[in-house]
Amino acid sequence: MKNKIVLFFSLCIVFLVLSFQIPVFAEEEKNELELAPDAQSAILMERDTGKIMFDKNAHKKLPPASMVKIMTLLLIMEQIDKGELKKEEMVRISENAASMGGSQVFLENGEEMSVDDLIKAVAIASGNDASVALAERIAGSEEAFVAKMNQKAEALQLKNTVFKNVTGLPVKGQYSTAHDMAIIAKELLKYEDITTYTSIYEDYLRKGEKNEFWLVNTNKLVHHYQGVDGLKTGYTNEAKYCLTATAEKNEMRVITVVMGAETIKKRNKMTSNMLDYAFNQYETNQLYKKGEKVEKLQLLKGDNKNVNIVTSQSISTLFKKAEPLKDVKTEMTIQDDFQLPLKKGDKVGVLKIMKGDKTLSETPLVVDADVNKASFLTLFKRTIQNMSKAP
């Protein structure tokens, strides 16, 4: 009898403990989910480390609407970085580009506009006509440019993204995910001057002319949330309201994606919730800036035998404010089997950020200039010079 009484009270104690614990755990989970309660899919990512701080159905395939233009802009910025497209270049608008529906800046067939202004039209006003005009300039046709978009998605190992156009207009078989959109945004933000476009709240095309066009940013958070300076909104009846946003505060840049919100107000509120959470809870410590020299590479058979190895992007560590990250070290690996020529931006190594045996991040190291094979005459001169220096 005594044993039964002890067992009874023991069970009561266990029940009481569990009854107090369950609401605590449930409340923590509830608060986490309330960051984006009305989104079909959402994600919060720190840019430098790629660390995901929050996600909801992040790998769910959904129509991305005009957020497709993040990939469009990525390929445009790559071309500018390579020197194959100049911002001051004038682009002739085709009849096909001028005929685009949806969001547009009313480009006219045969009109010429600078690359710089066309990028503004895409980044600020989500101009479908400007997107197609730039795609045709780079690849010859929209179809050929879309092929490049899908090739880039494959290179970024995005398994749940397929592009069918450069605009995001509804089309069967075009889909992406919050996760994949965040990865594309992370890649785009390597080109740091992209935010000089996406942060503009209002501007003009053809200013002072009869057909002057007022550009107003479709991302109102650029105006209403301090630190937000991009990136791209989206809306179709099928996709509902979408937004890939980025903001920077105290040298920490974060990326948020919301897909499938019922209203603009709900979309912006959920984005703000995620940004507040990131900046209130986390901090970063920047270790390297983008393009910072970490080593010098000597290539005896190159026309430029001394070339700098630099970081391909900003490198940071991320930690909760209450738990600073300690005992972090770097580990650099440089390839030893180079094939010439090398192009500016080609990967030649990796920089790892380590904490103990755990790898926190891996960042490609690249060369900061082109290196071609040295001519026979150059190699001959170097040989003579080396011989003359010998004792």
Automatic annotation (TrEMBL):
It comes from Cerasibacillus terrae. It catalyses: Preferential cleavage: (Ac)2-L-Lys-D-Ala-|-D-Ala. Also transpeptidation of peptidyl-alanyl moieties that are N-acyl substituents of D-alanine. The active site is at S66, K69, S126. Belongs to the peptidase S11 family. Keywords: Carboxypeptidase, Cell shape, Cell wall biogenesis/degradation, Hydrolase, Peptidoglycan synthesis, Protease, Signal. This is serine-type D-Ala-D-Ala carboxypeptidase. Pathway: Cell wall biogenesis; peptidoglycan biosynthesis. Pfam families: PBP5_C (PF07943), Peptidase_S11 (PF00768). It is an enzyme of class 3 (hydrolase). The lineage of its organism: Bacteria, Bacillati, Bacillota, Bacilli, Bacillales.
